[in-house]
Amino acid sequence: MAMLSALVVLTSGVGAYTYYTVSDELHDSVHSELENTARLQAEELTVWLDERSQITRMLSQFPVLDSKDPTQISAFFDSEMANLPDDFVAIHYVDTTSNEVLASSSRERIGGTALGEDLSYIHGSLQFSNANEVAVSEMYEQGDETHISFVSPVPDAEDRAVVLVSSTAHLREVFHAPFDGSFVQIIDREGIVEFDERDVSSGELYGEQGSQALTDGFAGGIGAYEAEANSAFDEEHVVAYAGAEDLVVVIHAPTSSAYHLQQTVVTDIGLLLAVLLLGIGGLTLVLKRNMLEPLGDLETTLNRLRGGDLDVDLTTDRRDEFGSVLGAVGALRTDLVNQRRDAEVYSTVMDTAAAGDLTARMDTNSNSSDMRTIATSFNAMIDDLESTVGSVMEFADEVQLRSDHVAQGAREVNSASEQVAQSVEQISHGADEQAGRLTRVSEEMDTLSAAVEEIATAADQLAANSGEAAELGADGQIAAEGALDGMDAIRDETRSTVEDVAEFGALTEEVSDIVGVIGNIAEQTNLLALNANIEAARAGEAGEGFAVVANEVKQLAEATTDSATEVEALIEDIQSQRETVVTGVERMKDRVTEESESVETAIDALDDITQRVEENNTSVHEVTSATDAQASSTEDVSAMVQEVASVSEETTAEAQTVSAAAEEQAASINQVTTSAQSLAVNAENLQSLLDQFDVDVDEAGSSVISDTVPNTVAGVGVEPGVQSPAVSDGGVDE
């Protein structure tokens, strides 16, 4: 009930909030719609006025107006009218002094008055300060239509202007209010109604001078507000406005029409909220009678079941969901009774197993699947536990038996280890004596080896000196042959240089010929420059520019002549030096030929010296080889003696190591014996503990360690009663 009451309060609050929110939103929506309409219409009016002002200014600047020919101007206006929008009525060419129409697209207006004498202007005036100004008149009646005129002065003609007359019928198609009974007005800065959608107050003074719509609108503002009945509108209404340059667009809409949708929606929301609250109230009564009271009774019954009272009354005559729930609760109670009975039986079986009887089992024929699962899992667990305990019993028996065998084997191994230690001591003493004698033999062999090595060293030094002499002779021969090759290369290079110098001489002669040609061209250019100066002097002032060019050409020719002379002098110097170079190169070629013959003689002498040194070197190498062989044999004997001594020392060390290992093994065997005795005691204790369990395990094939644990002691491989034949770590057999 508390929840339903909260639902009623929440629904009322949400409904009230929605009622006022929608009302405010619709109210703001009306104002926003009127503001947007006023703004769009003000923008449309501004564009319409600007477009026609621009057309008028362009027409006034066409060159045809400079002719001041009425016939041409009228024909021009006729052609322009064909391209202008339909709301253009006429184009006049006017004398602004007399206000007379001099030319027009409307021939009947020629000679008449263009603008009314009392016509005022909503923008600008006929006193123009520049040719780009356009004056816009107020709207005025002419015949059955309302017109507006645009006036633009003709450039460079102070008393001439172009007047474009346009109908305001287009504005009537554009300017209309969105609600029934609403209307649009356009007011100028004088407070005059220039346009009235109703055609009621056009040309009259606006009824609400100084209102927010005018003051804010002429400042460029846009807005909407509510107003009481006044001289502008005779009932309560909404006013929307928007500025359009020197005009203000004002929309008047009666509140009864503007807020009609708001009132309708708010009324519908109120009715819907009332119906909703009545529905919630009726639903509350139904729920209380058919659901809340039975739920309370069901809660009481379930609490008694949860408290352990399985005798509660669950009978009902209902055939709905509550009847089904009570039937399910009755089935649940039956299951609880059966499970309680099974749990008591299972508890007895568990107590029996806990007392040590591992042959006890639970009955798996329970009506409850959960209890059957528990019984099956318990029986499987007891089976595993019974098997494990039986295996542990057999293992305990086997451990006790094997611990006795291990203790006996450990005593036998201990005795064998003591015998091995004594034998190793004797081996170690004999090895010490052998090592001493081998050391003295090794010292004598070292002395003999040192003497042989000194002889070999002297022979090696002699062989090295002979080899160096042979190498020096060979190097000298190679150097001499290289010098001879260099002489040949110099001789070839000298011959090539002579040929290049000769070719260079021929090239300088060709350059000299070219320089001569350049000199001749420069002299002829100089003569042409002189002739040009003479012709320029004859031409007088007309030839001054030509004379300047001729002087430049003359100076260039003189500079070219001087350069050619200098180049010719340089070529003569080069030719003179070329002859000197050729003479020097010829002399150098002769000297190179003479020196080449001397180098060949030196090469022959070096060949003889090298041959003699190589023969001596061969003899020395034979002596060195014999000495090296003797030294090598001596070193081999010494090395063998040292190796035998080393083996003897290693034998002594290994014997000592084996002796120490035997002692350590004896100590370890004592520890194993102690541990085996302790293991036997623990096996007896384990057997007494396992005797408390009752198990039914097949004795055949259940041995745990007899087939898997080898009959060994500490990894040594000794069976009980058998003595070890060797010590594996020492590597020495008895």
Describe what this molecule looks like in 3D.
The protein has 734 residues and is α+β, with helices and mostly antiparallel strands. It folds into 2 domains: 230 residues, Beta-Lactamase, CATH 3.30.450.20; 308 residues, Helix Hairpins, CATH 1.10.287. Helix content is 66%, strand content 10%. The chain contains 9 helices and 12 strands. The strands form 2 sheets. Strands 1, 2, 3, 4, 5, 6 and 7 form a 7-stranded antiparallel sheet that branches. Strands 9-8-12-11-10 form a 5-stranded antiparallel sheet. A hairpin with a 4-residue loop joins strand 8 and strand 9. Helix 6 packs parallel to helix 7 and helix 8 packs antiparallel against helix 9. It starts with a helix and ends in a 44-residue tail after the last helix. InterPro entries: Chemotax_Me-accpt_rcpt, HAMP_dom, MCPsignal_dom. This is HAMP domain-containing protein. Pfam families: HAMP, MCPsignal. Belongs to the methyl-accepting chemotaxis (MCP) protein family.
Determine and state the CATH class of the largest domain: Mainly Alpha
The low-confidence runs, each spanning 5 or more residues with pLDDT under 50, are: 699-734
Quaternary state, please? Answer: single chain
Order of helices and strands: HHEEEEEEEHEEHEEEHHHHH
Helix content: 55-70%
Total beta strands: 12
Largest sheet: 7 strands, antiparallel
**What is the beta-strand fraction?**
5-15%
State the helix count: 9
Mean pLDDT comes to 75
Under the CATH scheme, the architecture of the largest domain is: Orthogonal Bundle
- What's the N-to-C terminus distance? 107 Å
**CATH topology annotation of the largest domain:** Helix Hairpins
How many domains, as an integer? 2
Give the CA-based shape: flat
Query: Class by helix and strand content?
Result: alpha+beta
Family: Belongs to the methyl-accepting chemotaxis (MCP) protein family.
Region (Disordered): 714-734
Domain Methyl-accepting transducer: 409-645
Keywords: Transducer
